[in-house]
Each structure stands twice: as structure tokens, then as C-alpha cells.
Amino acid sequence: xxxxxxxxxxxxxxxxxxxxxxxxxxxxxxxxxxxxxxxxxxxxxxxxxxxxxxxxxxxxxxxxxxxxxxxxxxxxxxxxxxxxxxxxxxxxxxxxxxxxxxxxxxxxxxxxxxxxxxxxxxxxxxxxxxxxxxxxxxxxxxxxxxxxxxxxxxxxxxxxxxxxxxxxxxxxxxxxxxxxxxxxxxxxxxxxxxxxxxxxxxxxxxxxxxxxxxxxxxxxxxxxxxxxxxxxxxxxxxxxxxxxxxxxxxxxxxxxxxxxxxxxxxxxxxxxxxxxxxxx
Length: 280
Hints:
Elements: H1 2-6, E1 22-30, E2 37-44, H2 52-63, H3 72-75, H4 80-87, E3 100-105, H5 112-124, H6 128-131, E4 135-140, H7 147-156, H8 163-173, H9 177-185, E5 197-199, H10 223-239, H11 255-258
Parallel strand pairs: 3-4, 4-5
Antiparallel strand pairs: 1-2
């Protein structure tokens, strides 16, 4: 994602070798002129939480901005009752998650449990913008598989890599049987969800003793890859309320967020037909 913007390799996220649970700030782009920035929260380990209700509560409070990221290691040791008592009344809209970028490895089986936990956390929230938080699902490493195997997986299990599809399925379960039948009659192509994006990542070898890039200058830009990543950037901006975007599902956003100019997040215009005409 960063290569498509800067045209050079730069580590944005920390690796934290040995840590099972991580939620760490990753600044992907910072516009010092206008003060806007794009911040991703790099996460891992939530699928390892044994009890589903415990994991759902933590994920829900993270999405709602109630739990500061630095408190996650302590929260993992708390019971559900203590978490509710300590963080139920905490409200910080600036920590609230504006969008979920869900990345899957196409060479592995889909993380159905984690996707189910995330979907339940969104659906159980009492904050409307969390119920309807935009989701972009991305599938990586498809270039490591033979073309026939990729085509077969697209036909049989492609939807299982789509977090938005999982959330919609769980929403349907809460409807009456009559409503479910009406929805089931409509073809999946008409459902208000976006298909996962296929990307081939840039790769940089790491030093085995410190996890630093071995030779960043050896990573060269590729227009085809950049076109895919820039299209994802564009969708992030167009679907995120904090950037002034809207959503196919007609999500409810505050007027203050909706009035925020798009340029404060990604302050450039890009001609996607001619990548060289990009101006920063």
C-alpha cells in the first residue's frame, strides 16, 4: 500500500517477533501541510482468544474506540464483567475505527472463526456507525498458486474470504423467515456487498536477527501492482466517513464527519488510466 504512494520501500508496521497479540498504530500517510493523516491499526492474535464472548466484547470495544490500544495486554487478562465496568462509559470518537481492511492469505483456509467474531462485534454494537462500518476484504498470495487452483477456489470458497459477506449472512439470521426468503430469492450479485480484491504484494527480504529490510533498494515499482493498490486507496477514501465518503449500504454518518474534506486524508488527485500523471 505504501509503495503505491511513495514509490519506494519503507517499513510502516512493526513486526514485534514473539508477541501473540498486537494492536499498534501504523501511519501510512501524513500530509504535514493540512495536518491530515491515514492511520492503520495493525492487529493480530484476536483469533487466539479462547472464549468467543470475551473476544467479541474486546473487538466491539476496540471498534467503538473505548479501549486504548496500549491497554489491550491488560484487557486480555480481565473478565468480561471487569471490562464492561471499566470501559462501558468510555467514549472517544477519535479512537473509533472508520473502516476495516480485512486481509486473507489465499494459500490458507479462511479464518472463519475470526470473521464470525468480527461480524458479531459489529452487529452487537449499539453505535450505528460501528454497525455499518465499511469493510474492504483483500486476498493476497494468489500468485503463489497455480491458475487452475485459483479458479477452482474462486468458484467454491471465494465468499468465505469476504468479511462483508459473513457480516451480511449474520444479519440475515436475525430477520424473520419471511424476510430471509425474500432476500434469498435475489441473486448474490445484487447483494449490497463488495467482492474481495486480489493483490500481489511487494516483498522485501528481512535480516534474520533484527527484522530490518535487507535491501530496500532492490524492491522496484510495478505499474500493475500500483494500479491495484491505488484502486484500494480510492475505495478506502470513497467509503470512509472520516474522508467525506459514502457507502453502498447508505450508512448513517454524523454531519461533522461527512463535511470533512476528502483531501485531508489523501491530498492528491490521480488519473488511474495513466499512473505517471499522479501529482502529490
